[in-house]
């Protein structure tokens, strides 16, 4: 990586403003999944262990510049404290006198978590005043918030204008794993793209067609491609204005000698519900009033075989409506294949990560990215503002 990291810089005696992505799922005031908090621990422990005062900043949800009690970071501070086995100070302010006082009274090796930075209207506007307030608190900026690296906000980008700025370990790992996968891939290289966000993912497909050996399409995304091939898809998910693009991509796949793999059979349902009537049909036979909500058994086998024979597999987006047991089989089969392959496996995207977690395969994956939107934009070849602002090596 051509950006400086915390390994390149002395932190002893420094006050560090460290942006993390603690945008974690919560229910009734409790953190329900602490993956993102755990992922930031190596950076936090490196800083505290090497004599820095650590100021942590994160967003939670989308409060749009106003304080909302249910989006305060107190439960996150509590969980972080449990994980660190050490006290975590928590401020109710994003910046200001209370914060300044807490920092000046803090000992080295201690951690202070600021309030949800999106309570301040300047955060998402990348307001220079707010960025200066952040920079004034510290000697060094560390960005470890890979999940928010595609946002140009005051705490993810603006602050880096004023003090030295380096990447944390999580940021470094995410960029290296995803970067290596894309720039110097082991082959056969297979990408599996599914889910429902056709608009968001179509750009990734374009970029991946220049890099992969196999491009496997599943989930709701598949049916725009099936339609583009001239088959009827009943009431399955369709992005009408992307049909021409889908055709272009299938052409591009041929030109680039990419094995473009689509479902050959599917599970169709007469209703979008768990107890709908279902049947297995070939892709040419989707009935008019039915919708395809999962890939069928032959397709699962084909996809699993390709995964088994690949050296590198990137997976983004479930193969079916996996939240309903009736349509979870395809996603489960692909997750199982990834868990069993000897190839290197990379999972990106909130729902795919949740699926491997739900099915108990998370620990069998080589890398489960903490960024959904961020990993997609990275794979699309877009610049991530939260990375661009960091100091070059
Ligand atoms: N055949 C399908 N029809 C409709 N929705 C689908 C289908 N297959 C998957 N989905 C839905 O796609 C959603 C996930 O899509 P997406 O957000 O693009 O994935 P990710 O978060 O992994 O990037 C899930 O809620 C799932 O129910
Ligand atoms: O959860 C996040 O994005 P993700 O769901 O795409 O991984 C990040 O914390 C970014 O949050 P945002 O999309 O509100 O800027």
Instruction: Please outline the major beta sheet.
Output: 6 strands, parallel
* Overall residue-averaged pLDDT value: 96
Which consecutive residue ranges, at least 5 long each, have pLDDT under 50?
Answer: none
Q: Fraction of residues in helices?
A: 25-40%
State the distance separating the first and last CA atoms. Answer: 8 Å
SSE run: EEEHEHEHEHEEHEHEHHEEEEHEHEHEHH
Explain this structure to me?
It is a single chain. With 393 residues, this protein is α/β, with parallel strands linked by helices. It contains 13 helices and 17 strands. Strands 5-6-4-1-7-8 form a 6-stranded parallel sheet. Helix 1 packs across helix 2, helix 7 crosses helix 8 and helix 9 runs parallel beside helix 10. The site of 1,3-bisphosphoglyceric acid (X15) has 10 residues, from loops. The site of 1,3-bisphosphoglyceric acid has 10 residues, from loops. It comes from Salimicrobium humidisoli.
């Amino acid at each position: 990586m051509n950006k400086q990291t915390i390994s390149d810089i002395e932190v002893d005696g420094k006050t560090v403003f460290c942006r993390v992505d603690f945008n974690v799922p919560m229910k009734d005031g409790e953190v329900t999944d602490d993956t993102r908090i755990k992922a930031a621990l190596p950076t936090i422990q490196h800083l505290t262990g090497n004599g820095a005062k650590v100021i942590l900043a994160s967003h939670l949800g989308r409060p749009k510049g106003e304080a909302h009690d249910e989006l305060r970071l107190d439960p996150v501070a509590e969980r972080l404290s449990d994980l660190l086995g050490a006290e975590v100070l928590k401020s109710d302010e994003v910046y200001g006198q209370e914060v300044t006082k807490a920092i000046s009274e803090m000992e080295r090796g201690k951690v202070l978590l600021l309030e949800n930075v999106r309570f301040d209207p300047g955060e998402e506007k990348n307001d220079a005043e707010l960025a200066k307030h952040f920079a004034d608190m510290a000697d060094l900026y560390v960005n470890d918030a890979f999940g928010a690296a595609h946002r140009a906000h005051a705490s993810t980008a603006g602050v880096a204008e004023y003090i030295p700025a380096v990447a944390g370990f999580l940021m470094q790992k995410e960029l290296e794993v995803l970067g290596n996968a894309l720039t110097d891939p082991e082959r056969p290289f297979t990408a599996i793209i599914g889910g429902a966000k056709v608009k968001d993912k179509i750009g990734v497909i374009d970029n991946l067609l220049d890099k992969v050996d196999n491009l496997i399409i599943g989930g709701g995304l598949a049916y725009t491609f099936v339609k583009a091939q001239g088959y009827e898809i009943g009431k399955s998910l369709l992005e009408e204005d992307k049909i021409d693009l889908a055709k272009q991509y299938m052409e591009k796949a041929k030109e680039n000698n990419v094995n473009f793999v689509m479902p050959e059979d599917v599970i169709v349902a007469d209703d979008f519900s768990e107890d709908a009537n279902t049947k297995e049909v070939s892709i040419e036979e989707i009935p008019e009033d039915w919708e395809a909500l999962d890939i069928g058994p032959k397709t699962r086998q084909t996809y699993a075989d390709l995964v088994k024979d690949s050296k590198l597999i990137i997976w983004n987006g479930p193969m079916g409506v996996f939240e309903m047991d009736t349509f979870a089989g395809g996603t489960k089969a692909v997750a199982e294949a990834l868990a069993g392959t000897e190839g290197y496996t990379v999972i990106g995207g909130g729902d795919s990560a949740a699926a491997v977690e739900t099915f108990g395969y998370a620990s069998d994956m080589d890398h489960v990215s903490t960024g959904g939107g961020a990993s997609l934009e990275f794979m699309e070849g877009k610049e991530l503002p939260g990375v661009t602002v960091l100091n070059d090596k």
